[in-house]
Design a protein that fits this description.
This is BGH3 protein. This protein has 197 residues and is an alpha+beta fold. It is built from nine helices and ten strands. The protein has helices at residues 35-41, 46-54, 58-62, 74-78, 82-89, 92-100, 171-176, 181-189, 193-196; strands at residues 3-4, 7-16, 19-24, 67-72, 103-104, 117-120, 126-132, 135-138, 144-151, 154-159. The radius of gyration is 20 Å and the shape is elongated.
Length: 197
């Protein structure tokens, strides 16, 4: 699937006497803002704006290149327990891992994403992309709220749920989500859970 500024290419290579015509499915709008400028002007990305500034990712998101930002909305950050969010925001390394987990190494418009695709993030981890009816899914969840916001250096998709990589979790949080969750109860009963958090 080929796209032009996120418009789908319907028919290619119509040769004329003075050139060639490609038919696309929408009008291409002028794009003037970088990904960073979109973050700075969009009200629903206020928390993300603060997180990007704290992690020194501003320069990357306004640099030349082609990236996909899965931009967590304010709503996405609000779904995380306050204690967990404060811990990540206060830990520069965990915060950078969290944000890099939301950035893909290439520009991917929604039209060009094929179900079952595995995409690599800037952090080096992978995200599974699929479909649920008409909706795109990330790791099995239909969490993309707004798609294909074009930037001069890529594309932004708004997501309403935070994608927290393992590297941004504590040992306790990792264990709670795994097959050793019952063992965690023993650590808690023994008064040792503080070592895992």
């Amino acid at each position: 699937i080929v796209t032009v500024n996120c418009a789908r290419l319907l028919k290619a290579d119509h040769h004329a006497t003075n050139g060639v015509v490609h038919v696309i499915d929408k009008v291409i709008a002028t794009t003037t803002n970088s990904i960073q400028q979109i973050i700075e002007t969009e009200e629903s990305l206020e928390t993300l704006r603060a997180a990007v500034a704290a992690s020194d990712l501003n320069s990357l998101l306004e640099s030349e290149g082609q990236y996909t930002l899965l931009a967590p909305t304010n709503e996405a950050f609000e779904k995380i327990p306050r204690e967990t969010l404060n811990r990540i925001l206060g830990d520069p390394e965990a915060l950078r891992d969290l944000l890099n987990h939301h950035i893909l190494k290439s520009a991917m418009c929604a039209e060009a994403i094929i179900a079952g695709l595995t995409m690599e993030t800037l952090e080096g981890t992978t995200l599974d992309v699929g479909c649920s009816g008409e909706e795109l899914t990330l790791n099995g969840k239909p969490i993309i709220a707004n798609k294909d916001v074009l930037a001069t250096n890529g594309v932004v998709h708004f997501v309403n749920e935070l994608l927290i990589p393992d590297s941004a979790k504590t040992l306790f949080e990792l264990a709670q989500e795994s097959e050793v969750s019952k063992s965690m109860d023993f650590f808690r009963q023994a008064g040792l859970s503080s070592h895992l958090t």
